[in-house]
Amino acid sequence: xxxxxxxxRYLDWLARERRAAANTVEAYGGDLADFLHFLNGHLxxxxxxxxxxxxxxxxxxxxxxxxxxxxxGAATRARQLAAIRGFLRFLAxxxxxxxxxxxxxxxxxxxxxxxxxLTPEQAxxxxxxxxxxxxxxxxxxxxxxxxxxxxxxxxxxxxxxRIAEALALDVRDAPLPGQDAGLxxxxxxxxxxxxxVLPAVRQAVAAYLALRPGATPAEPLxxxxxxxxxxxxxxxxxxxxxxxxxxxxxxxxxxxxxxxxATHLLGGGADLRAIQELLGHASLSTxxxxxxxxxxxxxxxxxxxxxxxx
Length: 310
Known about the structure:
This protein has helices spanning 3-16, 22-42, 49-53, 57-69, 74-95, 120-129, 142-159, 163-167, 199-209, 232-246, 254-267, 272-279, 284-287, 289-305; strands at 183-186, 192-195. It is mostly helical. It folds into 2 domains: 3-104, Orthogonal Bundle (DNA polymerase, domain 1); 120-305, hpI Integrase, Chain A, CATH 1.10.443. A two-stranded antiparallel sheet has the order 1-2. α1 packs antiparallel against α2 and α7 (142-159) runs parallel beside α11 (254-267). The longest helix is centred in the N-terminal third of the chain and has 22 residues, at 74-95. The protein starts with a helix and ends in a 5-residue tail after the last helix.
């Protein structure tokens, strides 16, 4: 069996047995084609099963180095290494190839993406006006759904919650006017934190619940059209529709409101440790990503304001 024949078998297995997405199969197919083309020159001939069985970790490192020299970025090389790992493990299971020490091969280090925040004006607009996107002819309870979305997105921006944390709240947890206590949130790993609540958040939640008379404490705070707990995809679609109508940037998502909460606090002089507690980050290094966002904003301001910035 040639390497090309083995590649086609693997891609067929990915599509049929693993039900991988068409884009994944296509990307892995291209990655493995690059790998086999490299081996053709590296080994001095078209690789077959015997040649693949004789590969060493040094051969894979040589391929990654060649791809880096050709201009492939870290993310591309990481994906190509994942494709090769899966391909060789597949051949080890189906053809009895002796697996090479794949665990010893370290992929390229990927820098975590810098969070993309909205401006304060964009964040306030998205949170307070998102309810305007609903089509009354299509919505079952248009006023309630509009108020729900305003309450949800005001909560995300005002308290820095993850969308899953907000949608897990029940009516008994609702922050309402006249209450002094903060909002107790259960985050990742079941870790709880107490988050202060702005008056604007309490008012938005109260306006929404006023349209749900008789709601019991055990009911979900944010309801879907059919009466169950709101699906995150529905909330994301609401903001996506509003983003399109209002001309907001593509990164205006529910999670961007959380990013905006942290970035705007940092820009206002908040302590990084305090922001870490408010966001529920286990590690300060995760929160420190927001310093890059704030630094970028300071640089943009400097370029606009300084007379010698050009």
